[in-house]
């Protein structure tokens, strides 16, 4: 394999072709000769340059970090995020080969990551905004979260391996800082990065910022995010980080990877389902969302507990948790563990809904609603649901409690 | 400053003198000429070689790691533990300069750490075994735990600095493995390293190993130890890691340093106080122990909350926790935090009592009881107290609950 040691430079379309040509294994995967390859840009996120190249034999996707935020060149940013995305794929791919892409190549000087192309797949958010719901995807994402988090947790491995991986991802501080600030701090304070177009949201924003219960809960969630390294998280598992054909589903864009509470990934996913639910006008569509939330949770829980059960035969006793006690104690302790994950989900889900509505980076989902007053009603309802989640005196411990609260706020639609 | 780059070799008394001679700053601190220095060995722990050198002007203590456990040469062990002890001192000394020793020199090839000599101080366990109790020491240790943990926690600093320190100490895996195995796993299973002389303890050991509640709680504590990096811990804060004159108190031997739950250090300290309490025949002595536990806890809590209060003026909002909410919410959340620390204390305290009684490394405290049957009664009572702690359906949330349980088991004496 050729190695590059030229200084970093941002590639354009021709640069991409040249770069791919220099990598024999990648060139072979594409097939034919470089002039037969079609190369095009697909960047649509905030941060990076993304290209797809297709040749007669196959396709790859090339992602390169920029020294700044793609959509805001004034916001400077180190390049190493592509390293962490590659490291994430290397850590989780063996456990979820059918649900994410393999890291085919990583260039540590150009900060380029190459994975197989998913050009037949659609971004889940885009599909949902077009009214195409794929309930099976929710089960697959639940499976992904269960397998990727379980495999990287203390429940699966001796602590030394977990700590080695924590050491690696604890250096992903630039993107962790973005999560800490943009998701878990700024929306709750007056900050120039916050924005919302609709003045009718302003009173809710004010209420969020003056509610002691909201403030306390968001501080607890931030502390939990930074101080509960249960498993390697994807870190940005919204519906824009999922590509699907409806049957084949792949999680992409793990550059925010960090050790944290298992409920973080799941909370972001459910939060984005709920944002789309509130942006969906018809009751039938909403019913599919509710079904997807339920399916996701069942899939996650079932797989996670099944993987845990399989561990009973491990040799290193210190890696066994709740394995040797009697069945009823074992079930009780494992349920408590899962219940704690659910509490985190409810909290991070609410934080995601809020930051995607009044923070720096909004979701596009509501733009399908062309009627301003409908949009207002729905955005308000989503925000009020999230606020209510955070204000619960007793944390929401089960999906049933959570859905009850959701129904309550859906009745305002 | 001279640097050494000779390969590692274990120093003898003359080697120590030569080594100290080669370090101008240390030689100056000792004063006079090397032949005027008195050098003697003070190793009394399990792991390392420890020497004190005194010259006309002052004294130093030199600690060198061996490639094995000092008291068990067949148990091989990497040398890097002295690095972590030096790193621990560098991290916490600025916050507790009056309660520990400064790292004067660390040699990364010889794995030698040099700190000021405490030759006028006595090891706290030794003092207590001789019937010399210094209640003021408990307040000082509480202050040490509060200041060292607070300063290295997310409550005191931006998460980036905490993560950088976590990265460093997550490499202290050899000694963390010892804690995981010897403190939090082996005593609860049949393992060749466990031992106890008194057959009357055997039924209690059997009861510990068959109690589902004990098994579940110890697994939860192990998970919490490995998955709650709240602060930089000393990691081995027993009464043998404290040297005091009765007024001046210094914490030594931080080689087990790792990020973990704040209640771990405090739990080990209280556990060792309680072991000595049960080994103390007279009620008056026991009353002093109870007073020390109370004093320790009040001192810890008061200082920790005071440090937290001072943070209210920090500029980076994401580093503020429960600071901007109304006073009653703030007090509620902070009390909850402290209560969680107490729950950990109760658990780790119990684990320490158990492993110091039936695990690999026992405490000497009970050896002062020359009457076998008295010793048996008292060791049994200590073990049963610990078992009861671990078996509580509702975790012990306050010192009052904890002391109530302790009184109950003291009444068996
Ligand atoms: N493997 C792939 N195959 C085909 N297209 C892809 C692939 N990976 C990503 N894309 C396309 O590129 C877009 C941007 O990718 P990605 O989300 O990884 O970039 P990003 O800059 O990190 O975005 P964000 O701002 O969300 O962090 C995706 O929305 C998708 O349309
Ligand atoms: N700074 C010091 N000044 C004087 N004596 C000291 C000093 N530090 C340690 N000692 C003495 O050396 C002994 C061993 O020190 P220390 O506990 O650090 O060694 P260790 O081998 O790490 O022990 P352990 O088995 O507890 O880990 C202490 O019990 C004390 O008597
Ligand atoms: Mg991205
Ligand atoms: Mg030691």
Automatic annotation (TrEMBL), chains A, B:
Transmembrane segments: none annotated. Pfam families: APH. It comes from the Bacteria. Gene3D superfamilies: 3.90.1200.10, Phosphorylase Kinase, domain 1. The keyword Cytoplasm does not apply. Its EC number is 2.7.1.100. One of its GO terms (molecular function) is kinase activity. It is an enzyme of class 2 (transferase). Residues 58-281 form the Aminoglycoside phosphotransferase domain. SUPFAM superfamilies: Protein kinase-like (PK-like). Keywords: ATP-binding, Kinase, Nucleotide-binding, Transferase. NCBIfam families: MTRK (TIGR01767). Homodimer. Belongs to the methylthioribose kinase family. This is S-methyl-5-thioribose kinase. It comes from Acetobacter malorum DSM 14337. The lineage of its organism: Bacteria, Pseudomonadati, Pseudomonadota, Alphaproteobacteria, Acetobacterales.
